[in-house]
From TrEMBL:
Its EC number is 5.4.99.18. Pfam families: AIRC (PF00731). It is an enzyme of class 5 (isomerase). NCBIfam families: purE. InterPro entries: PurE_ClassI, PurE_dom, PurE_prokaryotes. Catalyzes the conversion of N5-carboxyaminoimidazole ribonucleotide (N5-CAIR) to 4-carboxy-5-aminoimidazole ribonucleotide (CAIR). SUPFAM superfamilies: N5-CAIR mutase (phosphoribosylaminoimidazole carboxylase, PurE). Pathway: Purine metabolism; IMP biosynthesis via de novo pathway; 5-amino-1-(5-phospho-D-ribosyl)imidazole-4-carboxylate from 5-amino-1-(5-phospho-D-ribosyl)imidazole (N5-CAIR route): step 2/2. The keyword Phosphoprotein does not apply. This is N5-carboxyaminoimidazole ribonucleotide mutase. Substrate binds at residues 11, 14, 41. Residues 3-152 form the PurE domain. It comes from the Bacteria. It comes from Georgenia soli.
């Protein structure tokens, strides 16, 4: 089977952030494709990518960009697929510029925006979208997601236990 999720970014300089989306989807055995597609620097290829994505078998697009981040919104304008936008922090403005560029979409053109640098959550959201289907693969993904959530719960419980143990071992004033 071909890739179910397309992970694209405005530049290869976004990869250290965007890699987290590919990694977590790998943990869920979801096939991905990765590429650089820039709305600003290669507008015609970007439009082609968005227009052809569904026909090529992709089911979700994760798009990351920094600064004036038009890529996720422009892809959402030309594809019927769900688009998840990842604001990539650059040296200036800490990613707030990118966050606002991605999140403030006009009515009718939704982009599911994650936090600044939140590519791992973007990958997890893509997995959840795939898991909402009615096919066998969706059922497998749902099961895997429940196991993953159980792992999170376990880690949080251990954090609480550590904190409680730390406090109970302290004696004296201010403990
Ligand atoms: N925001 C966009 C778009 C776009 O939205 O089309 N294309 C490139 N970029 C961003 O420019 C930043 C700097 O890129 P370079 O490192 O290549 O100079 C990257 O974060 C990229 O996502």
């Amino acid at each position: 089977m071909g890739a179910a999720v397309g992970i694209v970014m405005g530049s290869d300089s976004d990869w250290p952030v965007m890699k987290d989306a590919a990694d977590v989807l790998g943990e869920f055995d979801v096939e991905v494709e990765v590429d650089v597609v820039s709305a600003h620097r290669m507008p015609t290829e970007m439009i082609d990518y968005g227009r052809e994505a569904a026909g090529r078998g992709l089911r979700v697009i994760v798009a990351g960009a920094g600064g004036a981040a038009h890529l996720p919104g422009m892809l959402a304008a030309v594809t019927p697929l769900p688009v998840i936008g990842v604001p990539v922090p650059l040296q200036h403005l800490d990613g707030m510029d990118s966050l606002l560029s991605i999140v403030q979409m006009p009515a009718g053109v939704p982009v599911a925006t994650v936090s600044i640098g939140g590519a791992r959550n973007a990958g997890l959201l893509a997995a959840r979208i795939l898991a909402s289907g009615t096919d066998d693969d969706a059922a497998r993904l749902r099961e895997q997601m429940v196991t993953f959530q159980e792992g999170l719960r376990q880690v949080a419980r251990e954090k609480g236990a550590r904190l409680r143990a730390q406090r109970s071992s302290r004696v004296g004033f201010g403990a």
